[in-house]
Write a structure and sequence with these properties.
about 80 residues, three-stranded mixed sheet, alpha+beta
Length: about 80
């Protein structure tokens, strides 16, 4: 993980934010000690909803609770 001092962060904020947007994770230091971490946002929930929305356009839903009248052929040994 990259490290940057607060003073350099102030001077290069837009550049650092661009790196974060591209996936970088950066520790921010003050007087040599890490005081914060900048990481890209986690869009897990939003991404999952998008995928479910895409799947729902082509998914076929049937009744999964009622008994099935079709006989199943089990593997014979």
């Amino acid at each position: 993980m990259e490290t940057i001092a607060v003073s350099k962060l102030r001077a290069n904020l837009l550049k650092v934010l661009k790196e974060i947007r591209l996936g970088a994770k950066i520790n921010i230091t003050s007087r040599g000690k890490v005081i914060a971490k900048l990481i890209p946002p986690d869009y897990t929930v939003e991404n999952a909803r998008k995928k479910l929305s895409e799947i729902s356009k082509t998914a076929i839903l049937n009744d999964i609770v009622s008994p099935v009248e079709t006989e199943w052929k089990a593997l014979e040994e």
